[in-house]
């Protein structure tokens, strides 16, 4: 299929381009939700959600856990990927098959073939939680895209440029939306505005985000 035809079918499906290599696939995760939910409980049972501390000593309002061979962690010493959950002292739980399948299919739909993530960061937002503007740059390989899945309450995502001071656009991310970005957009600053309480019929007053990466 040529690029115009791909773009046309993408637009028909409600896909929204945010940059040359960044797009939102509206509702792409919906067919996976009934399989994803019990898998979140499995992950949480091994490595519970926790509030980590940033290198500057700030306790994050977002609670997080991980699955996969590598997990993202932060403490006073810095940000890094670890094979061991610092809290449990054990490996992060394995990435459930359905997670890896969703990530791979979303990447393909956005034009990135053969995405094989080794890390899945799972973020939980309660009302008021936010994520300040940042770049994702702890991964070894910037060639692979990042695939980010939103479940539950709506979030207002801020998407900026390559400099912190560049203007940002705001995009609502809804239950089932998947963002894929890579290539020239891979290092763009981004964040999440404080979550408003708009309870979701399935997840209640929370938002869950999975962020898949090739970290190692
Ligand atoms: C979130 N996401 O959506 C936080 N990073 O809750 C991220 O920080 C993020 O969504 C890189 C790529 C996509 C993302
Ligand atoms: Fe990020």
From TrEMBL:
Pfam families: 2OG-FeII_Oxy_2 (PF13532). Residues 116-216 form the Fe2OG dioxygenase domain. Keywords: Dioxygenase, Iron, Metal-binding, Oxidoreductase. Coiled coil: none annotated. GO terms for molecular function: broad specificity oxidative DNA demethylase activity. InterPro entries: Alkb, AlkB-like, AlkB-like_sf, Oxoglu/Fe-dep_dioxygenase_dom. Its EC number is 1.14.11.33. Its cofactor is Fe(2+). It comes from the Bacteria. Gene3D superfamilies: Alpha-ketoglutarate-dependent dioxygenase AlkB-like. It is an enzyme of class 1 (oxidoreductase). This is DNA oxidative demethylase AlkB. It comes from Paraburkholderia strydomiana. The gene is alkB.
């Amino acid at each position: 299929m040529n690029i115009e035809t791909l773009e046309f079918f993408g637009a028909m499906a409600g896909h929204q381009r945010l940059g040359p290599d960044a797009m939102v696939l509206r509702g792409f995760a919906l067919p996976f939700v009934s399989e994803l939910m019990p898998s979140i409980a499995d992950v949480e049972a091994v490595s519970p959600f926790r509030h980590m501390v940033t290198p500057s000593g700030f306790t994050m309002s977002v609670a997080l856990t991980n699955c996969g061979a590598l997990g993202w962690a932060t403490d006073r010493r810095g940000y890094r990927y670890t094979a061991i959950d610092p809290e449990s002292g054990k490996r992060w739980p394995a990435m459930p098959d359905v997670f890896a399948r969703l990530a791979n299919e979303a990447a393909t739909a956005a034009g990135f073939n053969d995405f094989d993530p080794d890390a899945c960061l799972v973020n939980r937002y309660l009302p008021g939680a936010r994520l300040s503007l940042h770049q994702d740059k702890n991964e070894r390989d910037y060639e692979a895209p990042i695939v980010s899945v939103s479940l539950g309450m709506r979030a207002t995502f801020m998407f900026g440029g390559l400099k912190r001071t560049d203007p940002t656009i705001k995009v609502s991310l809804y239950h089932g939306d998947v963002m894929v970005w890579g290539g020239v957009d891979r290092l763009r600053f981004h964040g999440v505005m404080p979550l408003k309480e708009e309870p979701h019929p399935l997840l209640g007053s929370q938002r869950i985000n999975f962020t898949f990466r090739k970290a190692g």
